[in-house]
Design brief:
Layout lengths: L6 H7 L11 H4 L5 E2 L3 H4 L2 H7 L1 E3 L8 E6 H7 L5 E3 H6 L7 E7 L3 E2 L4 E4 L1 E2 L1 H9 L3 E5 L1
Parallel strand pairs: 2-9, 3-5, 4-7, 5-8, 7-9
Antiparallel strand pairs: 1-6
């Protein structure tokens, strides 16, 4: 009989080679941009829901409700920026008396953004996460 050796020992001796494969290549490859129409095929709803962080530091403001689309964020913010209500008001993307903003998926996102707002569509979360950003929901 041949004596048993572990895979690690055989690798160290150079007797076998290890082949590594990507299980979910679509999620591991860096993306240059994502479109709202394709994110459902790149990430599951469950993974998107679990990736939404809760922001307990900030609190909701009183005011009217507003919406903003992902392509508007991509056009008006730089890679790595934090998008919050104050930043949207400063850039005049929402009115100053807005207190609640929901992010919707439309168009293309080509930047990594940290988005700290009140609500998100699942497709918007997928777009943010697939680009390497974070979606933080204000409590």
């Amino acid at each position: 009989t041949i004596p048993y050796e572990t895979t690690e020992a055989l690798l160290e001796k150079g007797l076998v080679k290890e082949l590594k494969t990507k299980v979910n290549a679509k999620e591991e490859e860096p993306l240059h941009s994502v479109e709202a129409s394709t994110v459902d095929s790149l990430m599951s709803d469950e993974k998107a829901e679990s990736s939404i962080e809760e922001d307990a530091i900030h609190s909701r403001r009183e005011g009217k409700k507003g919406i903003i689309n992902i392509d508007t964020l991509s056009e008006n913010f730089n890679d790595g920026d934090t998008v919050d209500l104050d930043a949207l008001i400063a850039k005049k993307l929402v009115s100053p008396n807005t207190g609640y903003v929901k992010v919707l998926a439309r168009g293309v996102l080509s930047k990594k953004l940290i988005v700290e707002l009140d609500d998100f569509s699942l497709q918007a979360v997928k777009m943010i996460v697939l680009m390497g950003g974070h979606a933080k929901k204000i409590k």
